[in-house]
Amino acid sequence: MSEAIQIQVNGQPRGCRTGATVSDLLDELAITTDRVAVELNLEILDKQEFARRCLQEGDRVEILSFIGGGSSNARGKEGAIHA
Amino acid sequence: MHEDRLIIAGREFKSRLWVGTGKYKDFAQTKHAIEVSGADVVTVAVRRVNITDRSKENLLDYIDPKHYTILPNTAGCYTAEEAVRYARLARAAGVSDLVKLEVIGDEKTLFPDTNGLIEAAKILVKEGFIVLPYTNDDPIVAKKLVDIGCPAVMPLAAPIGSGLGIRNPYNLKIIMETVKVPIVVDAGVGTASDAALAMEYGADAVLMNTAIAGAQDPIAMAEAMKYAVHAGRLAYKAGRIPRKLYATASSPIEGML
User: Fold this and answer.
1) Which of A47, A68, A80 minimises the CB distance to B24?
2) Residue B215 near residue B190, CB atoms below 8 Å
3) Which value does ipTM take for this structure?
C-alpha cells in the first residue's frame, strides 16, 4: 500500500493511501461504524458519507465514541478534543 | 396499584434513579452496579476512540443500548460552542437524540455556566435534540430552560462529586413549583438519605454517579440508592404529616382506668 498523503487522526499524524475513504481508514483501524462519530475538518459526517468521502492531504479526522461518564471531568482530560 | 412511570418528551422510564457510568473499577463492575440499581437511564461521555490500543473494550459492549436509555453528556465542555459540538457528535454516533447538556463555568466547583447553557440549549432544541440541561438550583434559569423547550431540567443538589447532599432544598422546592416539567436532581448526592430527601421534596428522578461508584462497596450502594429513591417517591406520594412543635398522642385517652 502506498502511503502518499499525511493526515491527522485524533490528534496524531498518520500516513494514508491516496484515494482512501473514511471507511477505509476505519477498517484499517479496526473500528466498527456503529456508535462512532467522525468529524472531518470539523464537519460531522453522516455515516452514509463514510464510504464516499476521500481523505486529502492535511485532513484532520476525529473519531469519537462513548466512554463511561457521569458528570463533568476537568478540562483537558484524556480523549477530549480541542479545535 | 397503577404504575408510577416517569415520562419525558413522550418517553417512558421505569426507574427514577438514573446513573452515570464513570469512575468504576472496570466495565464489569459498572454493569453490575447499574443492574443492581435498577436504573434504566445511564449517562455516558463522548471521547476520542483510542486508535493506538484497539484491544480496549467498549463500554457499550457491557451496557446494551437495547436495554438502557443511553444519555450522552457534554461533560468537560466550558463553552456553548464546545457543548453543541459534542452533542452533535453524540447524535451522529447514532445512539439517541437525547443529550445531558453541561456547560461548565469553573473547574473548581464545576458549577454550570448558565449563560452558556441557555445559549447551547437554544441551538440544540432548534436542531431537534431532546435537551436535558444540568443546571444550577436557580428557579429563574430553570424557567428559561423550559421556555426554550427543554422537556425536563436537572438542577444540582451540590457540586458534582462533592457528596454534600441537598444544599438548597428551598430553591429546589421553588423550581418544582415554578416549572411544569419533570425535575431530575443531578449531582451532589452523597448517600441514600440524600436521594430519599430529593424524592420526598418532589423530584421526579435523581441522577448520580460518584455516590455509587465512589462508595467503598459500589454494588451495595447501588442497591441502597434503588430503595432510597423508591422510598422517597412513595413518601412524597403518600404525603407527609405536618411538622408540629408539640406532641399529639397516638393512643386514645378513652377507655383508660
Assistant:
1) A68
2) no
3) 0.86
